[in-house]
Amino acid sequence: MPVIETPEGPIWRRRTRGQAMARWFGWLLGLAAFLWCWSRISEATTWFFVRDAPRIAGDILGRALPPRWSYIDNLWWPIWDTLNIATLGTIIALILAVPVAFLAARNTTPSALIVRPIALLIIVSTRSINSLIWALLLIAIIGPGVFAGVIAIAIRSIGFCAKLLYEAIEEISATQVEAITATGASRWQVMAYGIVPQIAPAFAGIAVFRWDINIRESTVLGLVGAGGIGLQLQASLNTLAWPQVSLILLVILFAVVLSEWVSAKVRAAII
Amino acid sequence: MTAADTEIDSLLGRKWRKPPMIRRRWLRWAIGLGFVAYLIAAFATIEVNWSRVYEGLDRGGAFVMAFTSPDFTSRGSDIWAGMLESVVMTVAASVVGILISIPIALGAARNIAPLPVYMICRGIIAVSRALQEIIVAILLVAIFGFGPLAGFLTLSFATIGFLSKLLAEDIESMSRAQGEAVRATGSRWAQWINYGVQPQVMPRLIGLSIYRVDINFRESAILGLVGAGGIGATLNTAFDRYEYDTAAAILIIIIAVVMALEYISGIVRARVQ
User: Which parts pass through the membrane (chain B) (predicted)?
Assistant: First the structure.
């Protein structure tokens, strides 16, 4: 135990002198890294605009209020599209995520050496790329529209759903699976009666959770042209129609809060 | 014969069936039917230009092939500058966001903060969580002009909502006994927080912070689409010019960095917990 000897006797210290120095040096490095990052941001910034920012913000706010409520008639169709992008995307993602999850889970994978790394790679690569980037890519490939949005949301969600699902599969109790196997059940019967009932609640929870996130993401997919209410947002921003922008933002905020409420209710009912 | 049948039937009892997930029959049917009706309506209203999709398959194939020969060099300097800006934004925004979110988390924990402070902090968290990064970025670019400052502010703002909420929940579920023990020694408020609360939530704070760095990096990759700095602008240009090999290179770098961050965060979380 590190102590310091003083004339009045030893005093307890939490760390030795070397440990304390190492910690301070670490913090110093961290601080230096942060300051360097900040200086780079600062170099790339036009500070004149920043000093002017409060006035600009007030100006924009003044233009944006009150929202143009009559514009809501043009928004019903985009809202329906947004809902479809999120829901259909989630359904497609779940259908694709189930096999990936079973291949990635340690206790159900057919081959831990070859198949599992491939499944994990699918999970990581689909998860680490944002749905807006997937949408950009799909628009270049299959053209702008709702369909590109659905597929973008679907691809992005595969990794997320499959990761949570395979963690749920790895946590199932082996005794139930063994009990079903002991009755002479085939591989698929074990799956249907031993594994699926154990992960069904987790699956339903993941589905609703991801649907909630997807509502959020599908509202902005239109910014790159993948359909939904984001298209209207982009159009309004481009024409500097700030009253319309504020109305659309309010609609998006309402949709996000509503979907979060629905998802919380459903998950509370399941679990 | 029929008598024997019924006898066997009565001995065997009813055939076992899997219990349904939703017990109430009418609810089960209502959800099922409503879902089918919705699916029909949704599919009927989606317009898919199948000939366009079919044409696109070639380009899709070209893009997939580009992953086998990514081009890191011909736009090397753009990629490097973009990635550096993304990393710089991520680091700076994570530091500032975490520093701000700690006091807000303390304020948003009901067992520490008085009700007025609690309401204010919960309000900040709700606003930050409800607004998505990209929308905040659009507004901030309009206010502060193009460049990484808007991205930095966006990510800091998003970090506050995420980290404060989860940290506040952890503080609310901490053990009271340790806090009381520190209190009983006659500590001041700051000492109580430092010795009674902080050690209990530190592992979670570190884990969440590293997770948030990971998220911030991923988000910084798209902020460039609206002019808020980072690799997104380079990526967008690459897609617009159909330079799939450059785009593939950027995506590979993003995936690699995210994987590395996830690996590091796994190690760190295993060590602190």
Answer: 26-46, 87-108, 245-264
